[in-house]
Amino acid sequence: xxxxxxPSLLRLLHGATALLVPLAWLTGFVVYSSADGRFGxxxxxxxxxxxxxxxxxxxxxxxxxxxxxxYALTAGRRRLRQPANAVALLALGLAVGSGKxxxxxxxRDGQLDHLVYSIHLLAWLLIAIAVTLHVMxxxxxxxxxxxxxxxxxxxxxxDLPGTWLDQIRRSFQSKS
Length: 176
Description:
Layout lengths: L7 H28 L14 H24 L9 H19 L2 H5 L6 H35 L14 H10 L3
Helix pairs in contact: 1-2, 1-5, 2-3, 3-5
């Protein structure tokens, strides 16, 4: 059985997203615990301005999520047929989009009743569920070889960064 190979652009965008989403999720959890906490709080307080840290992670995640979404809808659209992939991407879009609509002073001022904030909290929960389902589906579909293929640094001929735009262009021409 041949070793799975994932396109390098997918690995780059997926890897950056896979680093930033847990960081956003964890910083968001600390923000929620300190500023809201209606459904529970951490048993301790962490010093620092976590709202700004969470926002900074979101600002970095925003363009990567846009590029990842563009890739998924073009060259990676075949992978979106897997429900776990589609749900994870939709949850990411909801989290990043609702985060961009928020005002960080709402939480500082104790304004917890904004619809966008509620949507952002829902997205936070969906991200946790979606990533869990995504990882389980990857392990079920291809096991550890498929999971490891996402972390591989191997580059094949025709999959170098200089070919990425051609890969995207070809995806518009294919019917898959």
